[in-house]
């Protein structure tokens, strides 16, 4: 009994430190990868470029990620998680269709434009980001948008149109307008938000309403 009492706390402490070290190493790799991809792009970047930005041994990378494709996806997923938090706060406050659309669009455009590293990341990696759009880690954004849009219909904020088509159209417009936005100098997120919102609002008014079922 005494031995058990004496040895358990140090064992727990060692296990806790190991888990903390793992979390810190993974975070360091993700931070380094985001910087590398932002500076030179996915195509030019290599695992060595990422590891050199950390204090870790070169082989440590493979304890956490199998290749640069996996860490790139993890970086994008990390950004998507932050976007999800911001979207939940913005769309929930909408009282009109325009507020719903503008809130959604503004969160995305400002997220991309206001952090220089994220802006550079977007500029350098349009094609690989586009190729990840169907991955489960990014599909959570579309699923949450669909849930919020359906709730907005229930609340009388959005018209009862085909939500699958609407979410697909809104997601496509936002992404492609953001691609055009980051290619400009200077980058103007307010103009991008206004354009995309007006485009969606003008189209929304002319969409066919769904017919109630029998």
Please outline what is shown here.
By secondary structure, the chain is mostly helical. The chain is 75% helix and 0% strand. The protein has one domain (2-204): Tetracycline Repressor, domain 2 (Orthogonal Bundle).
Please explain how this structure is put together.
This protein is an all-alpha fold and 214 residues long. The protein has one domain: Tetracycline Repressor, domain 2 (Orthogonal Bundle). 75% of the residues lie in helices and 0% in strands. It contains nine helices and no strands. Helix 4 packs parallel to helix 8 and helix 8 runs antiparallel to helix 9. The N and C termini lie far apart (71 Å). The model has no long low-confidence stretch (mean pLDDT 90).
In total, the number of strands is 0
User: How many domains comprise the coordinates?
Assistant: 1
CATH superfamily descriptor: Tetracycline Repressor, domain 2
Structural class: mainly alpha
The shape, in one word, is: elongated
Strand content: under 5%
**Helix and strand run:** HHHHHHHHH
Mean pLDDT: 90
Main features:
single chain; mainly alpha; Tetracycline Repressor, domain 2; 0% strand
């Amino acid at each position: 009994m005494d031995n058990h009492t004496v040895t358990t706390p140090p064992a727990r402490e060692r296990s806790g430190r190991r888990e903390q070290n793992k979390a810190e190493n993974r975070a360091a790799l993700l931070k380094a990868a985001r910087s590398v991809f932002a500076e030179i792009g996915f195509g030019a970047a290599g695992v060595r470029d990422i590891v050199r930005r950390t204090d870790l041994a070169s082989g440590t990378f493979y304890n956490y990620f199998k290749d640069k494709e996996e860490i790139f996806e993890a970086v994008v997923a990390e950004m998507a998680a932050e976007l999800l938090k911001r979207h939940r706060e913005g769309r929930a406050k909408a009282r009109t269709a325009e507020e719903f659309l503008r809130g959604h669009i503004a969160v995305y455009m400002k997220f991309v434009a206001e952090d220089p590293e994220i802006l550079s990341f977007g500029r350098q990696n349009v094609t690989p980001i586009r190729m990840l759009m169907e991955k489960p880690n990014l599909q959570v954004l579309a699923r949450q948008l669909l849930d919020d849009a359906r709730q907005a219909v229930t609340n009388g904020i959005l018209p009862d149109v085909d939500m699958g088509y609407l979410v697909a159209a809104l997601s496509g417009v936002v992404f492609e307008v953001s691609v055009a936005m980051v290619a400009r100098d200077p980058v103007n997120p307010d103009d991008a938000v206004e354009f995309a919102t007006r485009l969606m609002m003008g189209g929304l008014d002319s969409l066919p309403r769904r017919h109630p079922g029998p």
